[in-house]
Amino acid sequence: MNQVEPMKPVLVRELIGESLREERVAQGKTLREISTSARVSLGYLSEVERGQKEASSELLASICGALDVPLSIMLNVVSEKMATYEKVTPLPIRPVAQAAA
Q: Known InterPro entries for this protein (predicted)?
């Protein structure tokens, strides 16, 4: 009898890395250019892009700054990818003023 292997859970750090790499490549920039601009080592940035390292919020902000992409936009991209993997509909984005009320 064939047994179905359980689906490997997707990790947020992998989706973040994938999204950062996709944006960098879409802009035609090298790892070296982004690592220099973000002030992070080339090796560490590479590990973040491959989903091997969990980047701090400060580091993510720095990398997004080097890519000229707001951190909120990058996190939204990651959120939508996660929703796809989880097969759920993402929550609609609400203005901050309404969310706090």
A: Cro/C1-type_HTH (IPR001387), Lambda_DNA-bd_dom_sf (IPR010982)
